[in-house]
Amino acid sequence: MLERSRLKPVVFAIATGAMILTAGCAGRGGGKKDTAYVARDVDTLYAAAQNRLERGQTKQAAALFDEVERQHPYSPWARRAQLMSAFSYYVARDYNKAVQSAQRFLSIHPGNKDAPYAYYLIAVSYYEQISDVTRDQKITQQSKQALTDVIRRYPTTSFAADAKIKLDLVNDHLAGKEMTIGRYYERSGKWLAATLRFRNVVDNYQTTSHAPEALYRLVEGYLALGVDDEAQKAAAVLQNNYPGSEWYARAYKLISKHAPEVVA
After folding, report:
1. Would you list the DSSP string of 45-95?
2. Burial of 140 (0-12, 13-18, 19+ CB in 10 A)
3. Which residue has the higher pLDDT, 54 or 136?
4. Distance between CA atoms of residues 254 and 215, nearest Å
5. Is the per-residue pLDDT at 230 higher than 90?
6. What is the DSSP string of 72-84?
């Protein structure tokens, strides 16, 4: 699992105006009656939701923010409540509902000033579900796409800056998955299948930490397949880009042993 994002300061800044307006009635919250689905005026209902969120009762807060929209769909509070609902579900680690709420906000308010945050919230909700490289990486691909959307749509924002950092980690994770599969094929003697995996890392994840090993594994694979010239090319790329790495040293020894005419 990759590290959890820190979103509270951002979303609380978004909600500052609402908190000021409801400060007078926020103190009434705290009982079970707060989450009962009874008709209430919008100020009281939003204040109860905010109160629950501040007390760490995130799922109850999300339900109350949803109720703000349900009971008062045409009020200025409804838009704000949609985003706060998404954030509350995110904090509660109910990522599916966080994504759904953020997507609903974007479908209704695509040009809103808070749209960048909604896109970012979707991205980090996927990002924080990334599992280890031995499992299916569908969620990792969804995270990559969502992070890319943030960068593409809002390149000058702080959200994009953070998304770029996370995207590097996501790519490293995906490359790691390819390496794991490639090594398995290699151990099984399936050299062609292994080589295709390592080539994918070199072609599509060349800036990740796995690139040097992928190049070395290509040298191994090409030599096993009898394609000495391709092995030499992979070793040359290793030499040019990672001349001091252990992977180049190992590749040089391997070629010197199994294809000395190529080295010469």
Report:
1. HHHHHHHHHHTT-HHHHHHHHHHHHHH-TTSHHHHHHHHHHHHHHHHTT-H
2. buried
3. 54
4. 13
5. yes
6. -TTSHHHHHHHHH
pLDDT of residue 43: 82
Q: Which residue has the tokens 């409801």?
A: 22
- Who has greater pLDDT, 220 or 32? 220
CA 84 – CA 101 distance, rounded (Å): 9
Q: What is the pLDDT of residue 20?
A: 34
CB atoms within 10 A of CB 231: 24
Confidence at residue 127, expressed as pLDDT on a 0 to 100 scale: 95
Enumerate long-range contacts of 78-83, CB under 8 Å, 24 or more apart. 79/105, 79/108, 79/109, 79/112, 80/14, 80/15, 80/18, 80/46, 81/46, 81/49, 82/108, 82/109, 83/11, 83/14, 83/114, 83/117, 83/118
Per DSSP (E only), the strands in 107-159 are none
Task: For residue range 233-246, list pLDDT tens digits in order.
Answer: 999 999 999 998 99
pTM of this prediction exceeds 0.85: no
